[in-house]
Specification:
With 47 residues, this protein is mainly alpha-helical. It is built from one helix and no strands. The longest helix is centred in the middle third of the chain and has 42 residues.
Length: 47
């Protein structure tokens, strides 16, 4: 049951890419929340 080297490397790569994607999505959500708050304040100031 020894995995071949390429499969093992791709498996680790998938884990790393998933982690980085989650971090990107998390940071992206933070950025979106910030922009939403700024937009809301802008709208309130304009009205």
């Amino acid at each position: 049951m020894v995995k071949t080297r390429p499969e093992w490397e791709t498996g680790i790569g998938c884990v790393f890419t998933i982690k980085s994607l989650k971090q990107r999505i998390f940071s992206g959500n933070r950025e979106m929340q910030r922009t939403r708050v700024v937009r809301a304040t802008d709208v309130q100031e304009r009205v």
